[in-house]
Amino acid sequence: MNSVESAAPPFSICTLVTDPAQYAAMRASFAAHGFTPGVTEFLHLDNSARNAWDAYAGLARLLDQARGAHVILCHQDVRLIGDDAAKLAALLTALTERDPDWAVAGNAGASEEGELRIRITDPHGVDQSAGPFPARVESLDENFLILRAEAGLRPSAALRGFHLYGTDLCLQARRAGRTAWVVDFHLRHLSPGRVDAGFLALQARFERHWGRLLRRRLAIRTTCARLRLRVGPLDRLAGALCLGLRRLRLQRPR
Predict the structure, then answer these.
(1) pTM of the model
(2) What is 3-189's CATH superfamily?
(3) What pLDDT does 64 receive?
(4) CB atoms within 10 A of CB 212
(5) Which sequence spans correspond to the domains of the chain?
(6) pLDDT value of position 14
(7) Rounded Cα gap, residues 75 and 155, in angstroms
(8) Which end of the chain has fewer CB atoms surrounding its CB within 10 Å, N or C?
């Protein structure tokens, strides 16, 4: 292996795959926008037969394998539609100049004040742009996440499932004295996302887990929910009641 072949690429792109055709289309869209060999390595775990890997454990495994200076965690149904590798590299260079302590970035999230910061096309709307950008945030949507490899972030080993790992990574960055941002990188996400029973079950575990770690009450808005980290029995009881009401609403016939 020569030095060019062995050099770490600028980007690693990591994905959990349930639909190989979707993943192939995703890779093709990235390759057409400059994420080519030498610039990018693609890593994935095959969940097509059964969901053998949840997001927390599976993405941690891929992060351990990734060699890129920046590691992109993205869904298989993401498509690039204009913005390319050169633009993303320039955005991240500018972000580092502005905030040398940034650790994770994305294209959708919410600020400390609870304001959504979004740059995306999805079933909720075409060419959505809620800035200004870059925007410092406390949560990030999971469709497209960029981790700065040197920060060493990993999804929490104590959590399992397929939701809220973007916010988990933001909280890990916060504990490490680092920051999270939304940048002006426009792409298409084919899914609208959903809040289902699995989401609500993980939300309850997430709130308990991070409430114990931070030992403080904290309200965090995400792109699809409002989280309230719980620090004591009364807080946890209130949280259980709120989640119970949300489950009832999900079960109502529409």
Answers:
(1) 0.88
(2) Spore Coat Polysaccharide Biosynthesis Protein SpsA; Chain A (3.90.550.10)
(3) 97
(4) 14
(5) 3-189, 197-251
(6) 98
(7) 16
(8) C
